[in-house]
Amino acid sequence: MIPDLRFYDFEFNLLHIAHDCISSIWSSKFNDIGTFEAHFPIKSDIVNALFDKKYVVAVQDGKQAIITGVQIESEFVIFGRSINYLLSKKITPSFEKKETVSNMCIDFVNDAFKGVENIFCNANEESLEKFDFKKETYSLTSDVIRECLEKCGGGHNMEFDVKNKRWVFNVLSGHKVPYVLSEDNKTAYDLTYTLDMLSFANKGYLEKQIEDDGETKTEWVLIDNDATKTGIYAFYTILSSETEEDAKKDLKSKEIKNETALTVKELKYNKDYFLGDTFTVEYEIGNFKKKTEKKVVGIDIVYENNLMTEKPIFEEVL
Fold first, then answer.
1. Under 8 Å CB-to-CB from 7, ≥6 apart: which residues?
2. What are the CB-based long-range contacts (under 8 Å, 24+) for 102-111?
3. How far apart are CA 302 and CA 4, in angstroms?
4. Sequence-separated (6 or more) residues with CB below 8 Å from residue 59
5. Cα(262)–Cα(96) distance, rounded to whole angstroms?
6. What is the pTM assigned to this prediction?
7. SS3 for 6?
8. Rounded to whole angstroms, how far apart are CA atoms 239 and 134?
9. Cα-based angle 195, 24, 5 (whole degrees, multiple of 5)
10. Is 77 in contact with 37 (CB distance < 8 Å)?
11. Residue in 133, 199, 119 with CA at minimum distance from that of residue 167
């Protein structure tokens, strides 16, 4: 059976319970904003209950999303984003801090939601190392928190706490789990491995405007992620970021992509493993064999035809 969906307003009042969901897709992220989509019969009661409603939260089997749109065609379709989406609607002014990542993130959230009394933050003090972190421009709070947590390999989420009627921000950290994912030991199937270096670059040039004796001149700055790669091994790109700090992040995003896709069998999300956890993954496809460590940076959960499937999204552990 597909679990019921419950819908609440931002004051935690129950608006509607839907029993007739055709299918739903939940995509959760370890350190980013997830997505949600659900389909209902066109004559479902949910059409009148939610069609013109704003500031609505959907809850299904523990997963939560803020509704960001609806569509009526042959079916009634709801679209949403994980509760982390709220952070993308807040602004963090320029700052300069030296603090633990967890404490910095809590400060960013408390400042962004100033005046909201039912905000609660859970710290994670597994990493007590202090970092220097500076932003010279105003930024979306979601971007600041994501970048801050990347410094220690951490993640975050926000929860819609119906029982206690509060919004909860959590700093997350993953752990090594004692499972090996492979088709041989029947913990995974439909396993694919992809290496993509189409957009790869290890060096880039950033255009900057500088003042020289009252005149504005153009200067090109080299951003180099790997000084050991020269000659034929130097792969360049043009960077369009506003600052050198952002240009370094832009160049880092152009690293070679190693992607693993598989469907988990026997193991259950939020029971046997969580976002941020690290697995050993073994591939044996034809004559190709590989054993590597992979971090769960997201998960796609699909409810359809009275079945539930979950597919973790992995990132190479460097």
1. 14, 15, 16, 17, 18, 46, 49, 50, 56, 57, 58, 59, 67
2. 102/127, 102/154, 102/171, 104/131, 104/133, 104/148, 105/145, 105/148, 105/149, 105/156, 105/169, 105/171, 106/169, 106/171, 108/141, 108/144, 108/145, 108/148, 109/141, 109/145, 109/169
3. 14
4. 5, 6, 7, 8, 160, 162
5. 41
6. 0.84
7. strand
8. 21
9. 145
10. yes
11. 119
Contact in structure between 54 and 9 (CB atoms under 8 Å): no
Mean pLDDT of 155-174: 95
Q: Which residue matches tokens 């880039």?
A: 204
Are the beta carbons of 26 and 312 closer than 8 angstroms?
Answer: no
53-72 confidence digits (pLDDT tens) = 999 999 999 999 999 999 99
E runs forming strands in 83-214: 91-92, 95-100, 119-122, 130-135, 139-140, 155-161, 166-172, 176-181, 188-196, 203-212
pLDDT at 128 over 70: no
Structure tokens given for 51: 């069609």
7 contacts 49 by C-beta, under 8 angstroms: yes
158 close to 176: Cβ distance less than 8 angstroms:
no
Could you give the C-alpha distances from 254 to 122, 135, 245, 251, 258, in angstroms and in order? Answer: 33, 22, 15, 5, 12
What are the pLDDT digits (tens) for 218-259?
899 999 999 999 999 999 999 988 788 889 889 988 998 877
